[in-house]
Write a structure and sequence with these properties.
This protein has helices spanning 3-15, 83-98; strands at residues 18-31, 34-47, 54-61, 69-75. With 99 residues, the chain is of the alpha+beta class. The protein has one domain (3-98). 20% of the residues are buried.
């Protein structure tokens, strides 16, 4: 399966709807003068989701299994309104989970 296909499959699995790729947006998140995330966010239009029109998604290599892709998906539901806010929400979620 290709990269976009894996992202779409994860969106379907987590959110129960189809997704059509719309665009790729580069995002760099800096916190206290340090880059905490630098990558591309894929923007998908959702097909048949009850509340969200878009989903932001990206993948990265699994640390324990480098051939496996870990995927992050964030629905466009306020306060998430852009690829940048999706990255911020994902980072905040990871920090909360780590505590």
């Amino acid at each position: 399966m290709d990269y976009f296909g894996e992202l779409q499959a994860k969106i379907y699995l987590l959110h129960g709807c189809g997704a059509r790729h719309r665009q790729t947006v580069p995002v760099k998140e800096i916190f206290e003068g340090k880059t905490v995330w630098d990558g591309e966010v894929e923007v998908f239009d959702l097909i048949g989701h009850a509340t969200a029109k878009r989903c932001y998604a990206w993948g990265y290599a699994n640390e324990k299994q480098p051939d496996k892709l870990d995927v992050v998906t964030v629905l466009e539901i306020s306060p998430v309104v852009s690829p940048e806010t999706a990255v911020k929400a994902a980072i905040a979620s990871r920090v909360r989970s780590a505590r």
